[in-house]
Each structure stands twice: as C-alpha cells, then as structure tokens.
Write a structure and sequence with these properties.
With 180 residues, the chain is α+β, with helices and mostly antiparallel strands. It is built from 6 helices and 9 strands. It is globular and about 45 Å long.
Length: 180
C-alpha cells in the first residue's frame, strides 16, 4: 500500500486534560504544563517549569482519566498554536485542559517522529491557522484538529523520511557553525 490521505482522527485519539484548578497548582511535585511550556519543550527540548500539581492529585488523575504515554504528541492549542512535543519514556507531567491537546498515538499507524514533522509542515500548520480564525486568540479545538487532512506514507517510508530530515538538519547545523 502506498501513501494515503486521511483525517487526523484516523491516526490519533485527540483529547484534552481533565481540568486542574488554579487552586491545585503547587510550587513542587509533578510538572504541570500549559501551552507556553509545550512551546519551550518543542523549541528547546527542555523547560524550566514553575507550576506543579501534588503527587497525590497526579495519581488520582492518572488512575481515573489516564495520562500522556510515551510517543503521544502534545500540541500547543492556544496562542502560539501547533508546536509539537513528543512524550518521552522518562516524562512525568500533566497538562492544562484546552490550552494543550494530546494526540494519543496508540493505533500503531504513524511513527511519532514522522507525525511531529507532518504536524509542523506548512500543509498542516495552514489548516491549524485557517481553523483558528475568528477567535480573539488563535485556538485549536479538538473537533477542528480531528478533521485536519494528513498525508500518510507506509511506516517504513515514514522512518526513511525522518532519517533524511534529521540528516539534513544536522548538515544545516554544521553549516551554521562554520558560518558563525
């Protein structure tokens, strides 16, 4: 089977968090990410986090509603929309409802790294921008995200694309270093 055109909801379960009230925010415990933290994680691979929820609250949410799994994609959905962070095996965090969406990657149809590049492509980013118009602040809703059109190659082709992109990015970094 070759490339297919599909809707995002055929690849992911698009969801948001269980609401965590401001009164539940803490200065230590399990990191709690808003859109701005996801943007920093997407851009830098790390974030100096300032918000947390208690270990107990995290465990209650985990038990009752579930938490992001490794390979899921966290997407900033308010303000700076469309920034993507892939959940790692070592991550332990929870996230703010509505300002961050979780694209649960549990169907085995798409490589998480390929999915990140696909979501960051002009093709999908333009859909995000078009569907967020008419609101005061750019916002991605679950219902609009589920209907984004995606291009899906076979898994082995996804992995080849990721390898090629990463090789080219490494070459660009070397060129930038030489020019600096």
């Amino acid at each position: 089977v070759g490339w297919t055109v599909c809707y995002l909801n055929e690849l992911f379960n698009v969801c948001s968090a269980k609401r965590v009230r401001k009164s539940d925010w803490r200065t230590e415990g399990v990191p709690f990410y808003r859109a701005r933290e996801i943007v920093k994680l997407s851009d830098n691979g790390f974030v100096d986090n300032e918000l947390y929820i208690s270990e107990e609250h995290y465990n209650q949410i985990k038990e009752a509603y579930g938490i992001p799994h490794p390979g899921d994609l966290m997407v900033s959905a308010v303000g700076t929309i469309g920034k993507v962070y892939i959940v790692k095996n070592t991550d332990r965090f929870y996230y703010k409802d509505a300002s961050v969406l979780c694209f649960e990657n549990r169907k085995g149809l798409i490589d998480s790294e390929y999915a990140k590049y696909m979501l960051m492509s002009n093709f999908v980013q333009n859909q995000m921008k078009e569907n967020s118009k008419g609101t005061t602040v750019d916002t991605i809703t679950i219902s609009s995200a589920m209907n984004y059109i995606c291009l899906l190659p076979p898994l082995n082709e996804q992995k080849r694309i990721v390898t090629t992109i990463e090789q080219l990015l490494n070459q660009l970094n070397l060129i930038e270093l030489e020019l600096a």
